[in-house]
Every structure is written in C-alpha cells, then in structure tokens.
Amino acid sequence: MKIAVVMGSRSDLPVVEKTLEMLKKFGIDYEARVLSAHRTPEEALDFSRNADKNGIDLLIAAAGKAAHLPGVLAAVTTLPVIGLPIKSSTMDGLDSLLSIVQMPTGIPVATVAINGAENAGILAAQILSLKYPELKEKLLAFKAEMRDKILSESYV
Amino acid sequence: MKIAVVMGSRSDLPVVEKTLEMLKKFGIDYEARVLSAHRTPEEALDFSRNADKNGIDLLIAAAGKAAHLPGVLAAVTTLPVIGLPIKSSTMDGLDSLLSIVQMPTGIPVATVAINGAENAGILAAQILSLKYPELKEKLLAFKAEMRDKILSESYV
Amino acid sequence: MKIAVVMGSRSDLPVVEKTLEMLKKFGIDYEARVLSAHRTPEEALDFSRNADKNGIDLLIAAAGKAAHLPGVLAAVTTLPVIGLPIKSSTMDGLDSLLSIVQMPTGIPVATVAINGAENAGILAAQILSLKYPELKEKLLAFKAEMRDKILSESYV
Amino acid sequence: MKIAVVMGSRSDLPVVEKTLEMLKKFGIDYEARVLSAHRTPEEALDFSRNADKNGIDLLIAAAGKAAHLPGVLAAVTTLPVIGLPIKSSTMDGLDSLLSIVQMPTGIPVATVAINGAENAGILAAQILSLKYPELKEKLLAFKAEMRDKILSESYV
Amino acid sequence: MKIAVVMGSRSDLPVVEKTLEMLKKFGIDYEARVLSAHRTPEEALDFSRNADKNGIDLLIAAAGKAAHLPGVLAAVTTLPVIGLPIKSSTMDGLDSLLSIVQMPTGIPVATVAINGAENAGILAAQILSLKYPELKEKLLAFKAEMRDKILSESYV
Amino acid sequence: MKIAVVMGSRSDLPVVEKTLEMLKKFGIDYEARVLSAHRTPEEALDFSRNADKNGIDLLIAAAGKAAHLPGVLAAVTTLPVIGLPIKSSTMDGLDSLLSIVQMPTGIPVATVAINGAENAGILAAQILSLKYPELKEKLLAFKAEMRDKILSESYV
Amino acid sequence: MKIAVVMGSRSDLPVVEKTLEMLKKFGIDYEARVLSAHRTPEEALDFSRNADKNGIDLLIAAAGKAAHLPGVLAAVTTLPVIGLPIKSSTMDGLDSLLSIVQMPTGIPVATVAINGAENAGILAAQILSLKYPELKEKLLAFKAEMRDKILSESYV
Amino acid sequence: MKIAVVMGSRSDLPVVEKTLEMLKKFGIDYEARVLSAHRTPEEALDFSRNADKNGIDLLIAAAGKAAHLPGVLAAVTTLPVIGLPIKSSTMDGLDSLLSIVQMPTGIPVATVAINGAENAGILAAQILSLKYPELKEKLLAFKAEMRDKILSESYV
User: Fold this and answer.
1) How far is C28 from chain D (nearest CA, A)?
2) How high is the ipTM of this complex?
3) Which of C5, C20, C90 sits opposite A114 (nearest CB)?
4) Which of D98, D115, D150 is best to mutate for the B interface (most B CBs within 10 A)?
C-alpha cells in the first residue's frame, strides 16, 4: 500500500503537509515529490507512467494557478489521480480549481476543495480501503472521532 | 464489483445516462437510483449507510444547484463518493460545482467536471481497478482507443 | 418562544455570536448547538426532526464552504430555516452563499447575507412576531433606534 | 391569513406565477401587485408601510438586475420579507441575487434561489405556519407528496 | 453650484473623504450626509425629492453590499445621480457594483469604479461644467496636472 | 444641445438603437458614429478631442469585450462620457462592464447597466437638464409616464 | 516561415478555422493538428519538442475547459506559444481562459481572447514579422483595411 | 535588440521590476516608461506609433483595473504587444485580466497571468529569439536551470 504525493512547486508544501499528516494518521506509506508539469514535464510524466509498476496505488497531485499537474499525470496512468487545488495570490483559488476539475471527457481527476489538503489524504484512504480493508476500520474510527469531537463540545 | 449511481432528481438522468453507458462499457454492474438529500433524506442516508454491507464498492452522486447529495451520502459511509455537478438553468453550473467540491475537512467528495458524466464513470473504473485488476486492462484499452481516435484524424 | 441556532463548526462561533446577541436583545430564548451535516449527520437530522415537538419555533443554521447544514435541517422539518453563509478562507463566501441559497424546489432556506449574523437574528424576530406580537413592538423600537442613530450623526 | 406578492415589473410574472400557484396549493390568500422600487417608489413604500395594518402577514418581493424592491419594502415594515431574485438577460441572475441577499445589518431579506419561485411560496407557508397551525399539516403532506413522488420512480 | 454627497453608512466615510477632497479641489460646494435607503428611507427619499428645489445640482451616493441608496435616490429626482460602490468585507465589491450599476430601464445611475471616490468627484465636476463653464478650466488644468505628473517621472 | 453617440462596432447598433430612440423622445439632437478605440484610434481621439468645440455637450460610448472606447474618449475631453457596456458572446457582459467602469483615478466614465441602452439616453437627458431646463419637464413627464404605466396594470 | 496550429479536440475546429483563414490571408504556411494534452500526451509533447528543428517558428494551441494543451506544449519548447481559449458548454469560457493564461512563473503562454481565433492568427503574424519583415507590410495593410472599413460606414 | 516596457502608473513598478530583472537576465536591452492610456494618451500613442522606427522590437504593457494601456498601444503599431494585468485593490485582478485579454478582433494583445511579471519578460525573450537566435540558447539554459532547481530538491 503506497501512494505518491506530487506537488507542482515547493511553495505548495505548507498546504500539502496536512495531506502528509493525514496519510501518516492512516498508516499509508507515501512518496512525496516536487515535480512540475511545466518545468519538469518529462520527469513528471515518467513518474506517473511508471507509478503503477513501481507499486504506487494512487496519486495525489497539488498545484496552483493554471494547475495542469493533476491532469498531466492522469494522462499517462490508469491509477486514480486526486487533484488538490492550491490557492495562490490571485483569483482566490478559482483558477486552480477550474484548471483541475474541468477535465475533458476521458481523463478524470478526483478533485477536492481549494486547499482541502486533509481531504485529499482522507479520500486516498477511502479509495485504498477497497483494496486494503484494514483502512475501513481506521476510516470508521476517524469518522467516530470527528463525531465525538463535535458532540463533546456541541453545546454553546 | 458493483457501484451505486444516485441522482437528486429524475431531471438529471439525461446527463447521468452517459455515466451509465460508460459503466456498461467497462462491464461494471451498477444500481441507479433517484434519491434526494432534501426530499427523501432518510432514504438517501439509509441507502448510503447500507451501501457497503450491500456489496456496493463506490457511489456516484449527481446533483445540481445547492447540490448537497454527494456530501450527504459521503457523511454516512467510508466508501469513496464521486460527485457529479449538474448544470442547471442559472449560474452555469458554478453553484453545483462549489456545493459539491468545497466540502469541509473530514468528508471529501471526489468531484469531476460540471456535467462531466463520462468522467464520473471512468473515475469509478479507475478506483475499482485497485481491487479488480481486470479493469486495468480495460482502462488501458480505453486510453489506447481515445489515443487512436485522435491520431486517426489528427491532420486537419 | 424559542429558537435553535445551529452551526456546522465551532469555528463559526465568532460570527454567530452576533446572532446570539441580537436574539438576546429581542428577548428570544434560544438553544445554540454545534452540529455538522457531515460529521454528525444523524444528530443534526434528529435535532431538526424533533425541533417542532421540542418547542422550537424556527431554526437558524450557519455554515461555510459547501454549506449543507441549512438545507439538510430544512429537509426534515416544516419549521422555517434561516441560512447564514459563513465566509471561509477561499472564494470570499460565494461558495457558502450559493450552497445555501440555491436550494432545489420544495425545500427553501431563508438566506441572509454572507456573515450577516445580526440579520439572521433580526429575521428570526420578524418571523416570530407573527405568532408573538410583543416582538413587533421591539422590532419597531429597533428600527427607530437604527434610524435615530443614523440621523443623530447624519451631518458630515 | 394573507400575504402580498409584489414584483418589480410585469415581465417577472411568468416566474412569479409559480409562487402564486404554490400559495393556492397551500390555501393562502394573497394580493399580487406590480410595484417598482424605482418607478413607483412612493406606492411601493406605502404598500409596505401599510401592509401590517391591512392584514398582510408577510411580503414576497420579486425583482431582477439591481433588485432593490425586496430591500426597499423591508425598510418600512417589520413583517418578514421574502426576496425572490429573477434572472434577467445578463449576468445569469448573480446581480439579482447579490442585490437582494447582501442586505446591510438591520434590514434582512429572506432570500430564496434565483428564479426559485415555488420556494418563495413554500417558505411563506412555513413562516405562516407558526401563526396558522393548519398550514403545518399541509406542509407535512406536501413533504410526503414530494417524497412519494421521488420514491415511486426512484429506480432507474 | 452645489451638490449633495450621501453615504449609506458612516463607515463609508473614509472612502468618501476622497470624493469630498476632490470637490474642494474643484471649488464645488457640497452637503455631505449619512442617510440610509434601509434605515432612514423616508429621510433619504425626502432628501432626494427636495434636492432640486433646495438648489442641489447633482447627487453622489456611496453604498456597499446590496447598495440600494443610489438607485433609491434616483427614483425620486430628475437630477443626475452618481453611484459610488463601496467595497465591503465580502465579495470584493462585486455585490456593491452590480447593485448600483445594473439599474432597470428608466432610472439610470452614473456608476464609477469600486471605491473610485476621486472619480465620483471628478465626474461631478465634468457634469456641472455644462452649466458652470468656469469648471471647464479647472478640469483642463487638472488633466494637465495629471499629465505633467506622469511625464515628470515617466522614465524608470 | 447636442450629444455624440459613439459605438465601437457596427454590430453594437441593435443595442444602441434604443439609446437613439430615447434621445429622440427627449428631443436631444445627436450625432451617431462608429469609431473604434483600436481600429480607428486617431479618428476616435480626434472626435472626442474636438467634441467640445464642435458643440457637443456630452458623449455616450458603447463597446463590448475589452471595452476601451469610453475610457479612451474620456481621456481627451472634459465633457462627461457615459459608458454603455455591450454584452458579447462570452463572459455575459462582465468583461465589458469591468473594462468600462473600473477606470483609474482621474478619468471617470459614467457607467450604466450592461446593454442598458435606454438608460444611457435617460442619463444623458438628466445631465443635459442642468444646462437645458426644458429637459427637466420632459424628465418629470417621463417619470410620470413610467409610474402611470406600472400603476395602470399594477393589479395581477 | 511556418507555424503549427494545434487543437485539443476536433470539436474546436469550427472556431480554429478563423485562425487558419487569417493565416492564409497573411500568407503564413501552417500545419494544423489535433493533438490532446490528455489523450495523446506523448504525441503532443513530441510535436512541440521537435517543432523548432522541424522548421516551426511558433505554435498556436487552442483548447477548452481545463485547457492544458498550450501550457504543456510550452513546457517543452522555447518557441512562443499562443493560447486560444475555447468556450465550452459550461462556465462561459472562464475555465478555458484561466487554465491557459494563469501559467506559473517560467512558462508563459501568450493568451488571446476567449474564442478570439482571428486574433491568434494576427498575433502570430505580428510575432513572425520580427523575423520576416514582409509581414509588416501586410499587417499595415490589414490595419488600414480595418480602419477603412469602419470609416466607410462610420456615420449611422 | 530592444524592447519597451510601459506601465500605466508608477505604482505598478514593484510588480514590473520582476519583468525588468528577467530582461536583464536574458541580456535584452529595454526602455522602461510610465505612460498612461488615460492621463497621457497622446504620449502613449506617440510612443507606440514610433516604437518600430525607434528600433523597438516589441512592447510590454502593464496596467491594472480597466487596463486599457496594452490595447491602446497595440492599436497603433504592428509590433507584438505583451499585456501584463496588474492586480489592484478590488476584484482580485479579474478586471485587469479581462480588460487586457478580451480584445476585439483585429488587435490582439499577448496576455500573461495576473501579476505574471517574470513571464512577460520570458515571453518577450521567446518572441525575440525568432529574430535573435542567441536568445534561444539562453532560453534553453533557463529551462534547464528551472528543471535542475526543481529536481535538486524534488524529494520531500
């Protein structure tokens, strides 16, 4: 059980850290890389093209602005690709979101919320739980934990 | 291998049909239902709550406007939920997209493009291929088919 | 005369406080709760389903991002539900607004402005004044007070 | 039990008709008027100012573009005002929505979806049900009817 | 030669100050008032209705969010009304702009940029210059001054 | 009393016709021209630069997309310039509106609604009425006519 | 003198035809291809990577929705890439525009208007005119022709 | 080899500095000027009209809000004009972007990202490399440098 977390720029790391923490929480092994669809296209494509045979089950790709990385990785693999739009200094994340989610027919990207880094990790766990049932228990526990946290301080 | 395709209104069916066709193409068994987060909340929640034990591997939920269905289904299952935003008569689908993709921390929805019905089906196949490797061959064939179609008429 | 004020996350409380203050100003008894449509769906639904028989006249629901809480509460009660969109860190509140106001036919939510917390309380008082005429006097006094405040410093 | 339905222009009537049908369905007596915040400001204000003493319980105001009518009516009454944004030929209804919902502190308008005409009527019924309990039965029946309609054709 | 500058809230004054400074620069007498379309509708309407007979040549109206003030003033006068959209804490001024500029047929508001306070004053001077030709010289001088300022530091 | 109506393209004429009709209604003499800020910049600038000495009192400029015409004309005259944003085939008029209304400090354009062609004419009449008082009577009559039209069919 | 015109889908051709006509008008030789960043990533990259050595001076890339093609081609060439955003069935072209223009630092795309197909061709001619001065005469003639056309029917 | 960098206001300089640095990096001689389409229209037009004969190969124009400068310069030259939208205090740069990119047929502006100052310089180098092949080497080195920088710290 291993996933790849790819980000388009090292400046995305403060957001992506929350994805990595969530993966650790679920005990999911990951490889985190900075690879750019525009500055290192060959390496990015090679990484994705070889992901399956390198034992990767799923990719998470984070990018901002004209965020092409998730779609470009998805082009050369049949593994599911989760897209995490990063809010940049203009357009409040709308450019990142639309560049990731509005993929043309044939090449989907499973998009989560703008800066929704934790959710990228949780969605990865949900997808992996189809193959690795031990994750299902952890997800149920996580849901219960969230529920308990809210209920423990529900009264204002 | 079975998935559930839920839509919030029968009026979503013309778009969702393309999801169903894609699932047939990949040989994925599905149960398609109209269930509304607002008009049949109990039934919708029950459906999702029992999906796992009923042998469902994954849910696809299509909805428009203030599109709560994917998020509400995701609240009560650990199965992955794919959200398909349906364009309605106002706001050009932006309301549907934001209502589905901007999920709060803890409950992700794997969102595809506005009216991206085929992609909802393809993403389902990609996710299921983790557990059912026979789908991987079909996905590779599908990618090759798309590629061949473009290359066969690439010259203008 | 009692209303319920429900928020999707404790982080909404700084905004919602202004609703509570307004309710106090009008002498409206309230129960304030943190309940999430996604993290505590059963409790949220139960709360709303039982609100009427528990003597609640009206619900105010505050939520941000893909803000499903007001719509989900409205699904299981015939009481009026006031929706208060909370501005989050991305999209400047547009996602919260559209997720709350663009409800499908059959299940309305009475939506106020983004972060319009005082107005949620005032609207509650206006609605309750149909049943509790003593509120009408208070609303007239409040209107006069606003008017006097502006007129007292109208000259620049 | 009587409400007023005011629209800013006769061209809004095709949308507003659905509000009127919903009110008839709930047996709510109404007075429907075309009154403009800009072309007949005195009459519009007088109408709202006298609504309460004329036995009106609640106002529904429909308007498009820079839709000031709901806010202007709300300025001179303590009755609840439901705002119905009408989609016009430009901006896809966003201008109408923002002009109605983004009311400043002190003067709320209970806003429903763009062209959400039925919901304006249903919300009126919900609000009136606080004072006229017979409406509660009708609302429960309406909810049951919506539920049954969906469940009767839930299987695709 | 006199104009009225009306703002919907005292909180608009820091922006509107720049309008007042511009009017002083052009030697235009003004009366500045805080009057709200929603909190003091009668006073606002009376002010505009009587503006012409009180020797006012033109009105400038500044407001934010669901900014109805310019349109409401314009409804009851034939004097030109300049609308100044004020950026508020949400929606980046888009709500204010659309609420002011998208006026229905029959009641125009001469809208300037979001927070374009100086321009409201300059536009007033341009309009008044039709009647008071001495302003034309001042406007020409102002244009020359702007030009000189840029040219004096044009080389980077 | 004469105004100039300039449009950036002959394709704007169907919208601008309504401006011309309104000017005729108010008995305002006009010169209507197609002149482009981009395709005939010298002629457009010359036209505006000489407008004042050619007896023009005011300019109306209509343009779509990156609508520079109103601002460019305003750059070389002290006459008031009314900007009329034309909706084009993409972006629903938002590009035209922002390109016209968001003018930088120093060069205002009096902007009316997207495709608000009648209002451009009415605003021109209001501005001219400062200098030509006979227009005031016509404007009052026009307001009365609008009012009567609405009141004559106010009851639905 | 040769350029490449690449489009992401054959459905873009009706818009791109206007680019091709403009290139013919300027006597610019071109190669037009359908190549997708997502469905034929290797071929698209190879095409761009070899463009320079194949005698291509410049690339025009047209794409819609999450329009990655221009950016992906730009990643592997130092030739200028002109991006032409194609309006698709949702979001009115905003998604295409932002996905093309908001490129991260290092990899620019020279973006023209949504569906601005003629302008893509004209911009190509302007850029090529640096190297092929004969194009300058044609561009001057084209500018004169546009000017004459407008002036010949300037009077309305 | 020389280019002109024109900005509409001295306040744009902090952003434009990054363009100038990039030009220095590529060894491209430039002339940087503050010239406004609205405050110094004649000088701006003269500058662009004479650019070609003054040995300028290409113009970069930076402007914010209703950003007319790039389009106005492009109107009077056949040289390529690169447009750099500057984010101002409202509308998050969307007004600047649309005012620059949505140019009408006939007069293209090669638009880069909002505040994409480096990319304006890089695009200039790419365009100039058609005529000055020594730039091609520098661009290849720059691409390699970007690639190496990412790969050197690719592992997280």
Assistant:
1) 15
2) 0.98
3) C90
4) D150
Give pLDDT tens digits for C47-104. 999 999 999 999 999 999 999 999 999 999 999 999 999 998 889 899 999 999 999 9
User: D112: nearest CA in chain B?
Assistant: B66
* Per-residue confidence band for A46, with pLDDT thresholds at 50, 70 and 90: very high
Question: H99 and F103: CB-CB below 8 Å?
Answer: no
User: pLDDT, tens digit, for every residue of H85-108?
Assistant: 999 888 989 999 999 999 999 999
Predicted local confidence at residue D128, as pLDDT: 98
pLDDT over 90 at A89, yes or no: no
pLDDT < 50 stretches in chain F? none
Rounded CA separation B5/A14 (Å): 36
Give the span between the Cα atoms of E86 and H115, in whole angstroms: 24
Structure-block tokens of residue E96: 């204010």
- The answer to whether H and B touch (≥3 CB pairs < 8 Å) is no
* Pick from G92, G147, G154: CB nearest F90: G92
Share of chain B above pLDDT 90, in %: 97
B34 has pLDDT over 90: yes
Query: G3, G122 in Cβ contact below 8 A?
Result: no
Tell which residue, C143, C76, C144, C70, has the closest CA to residue C110.
Answer: C70
**Nearest alpha carbon to residue B61 among B106, B19, B11:** B19
Both structure tokens of H20 = 């100038």
- Give one DSSP letter per residue of chain C, joined into a string: -EEEEEESSGGGHHHHHHHHHHHHHTT-EEEEEE--TTTSHHHHHHHHHTTTTTT--EEEEEEESS--HHHHHHHT-SS-EEEEEEP-SSGGGHHHHHHHH-PPTT---EE--TT-HHHHHHHHHHHHTTT-THHHHHHHHHHHHHHHHHHHT-B-
Task: Indicate the burial class of H112 (C-beta count within 10 angstroms; 0-12, 13-18, 19 or more).
Answer: buried
Cα–Cα distance measured from residue D4 to residue D13, given in angstroms and rounded to the nearest whole number:
14
Q: Which of F93, F149, F154 sits opposite D90 (nearest CB)?
A: F93
Report all structural domains of chain A as residue ranges with CATH numbers, in order of start: 2-152 (3.40.50.1970)
A95 with G68: CB under 8 angstroms?
no
Q: Which helix (H) or strand (E) holds B123?
A: helix B117-128
Q: pTM score > 0.90 for this model?
A: yes
CA angle at E153 for the pair E149 and E155, rounded to the nearest 5°: 145
* The two three-digit tokens of residue E43, written as one number: 């006073």
* Interchain contact, F89 vs G153, CB within 8 Å: no
- Inter-axis angle of helices A134-152 and A117-128, nearest 10: 140
User: What are the φ/ψ torsions at residue A8 (nearest 5 degrees)?
Assistant: -75, -15
Torsion-angle region of C111 (φ positive above 0: left; ψ -120 to 50: alpha; else: beta): beta
pLDDT for H7-25, tens place per residue? 999 999 999 999 999 999 9
Phi, psi for residue A133 in degrees, rounded to 5: -60, -20
- Number of Cβ within 10 Å of residue A28's Cβ equals 22
Strand A2-7 to strand A29-34: parallel, antiparallel, or no bridges (unpaired)? parallel
Of all residues in chain E, the one with the smallest CA distance to F79 is E126
- Number of F to G CB contacts under 8 A, please give it: 49
B75 to chain G nearest CA, in Å? 28
Chain F touches chain A, with at least 3 Cβ pairs below 8 Å, answer no
Min CA distance, G48 vs chain F (Å)?
30
Complete DSSP assignment for D79-132: S-EEEEEEP-SSGGGHHHHHHHH-PPTT---EE--TT-HHHHHHHHHHHHTTT-
CA distances E19 to E132, G11, H35, Å, are 19, 51, 25
Q: Over 90: is that where the pLDDT of D90 sits? A: no
What is the secondary structure of A93-121 as a DSSP string? GHHHHHHHH-PPTT---EE--TT-HHHHH
Neighbours of chain A (3+ CB pairs under 8 A): B, C, G, H
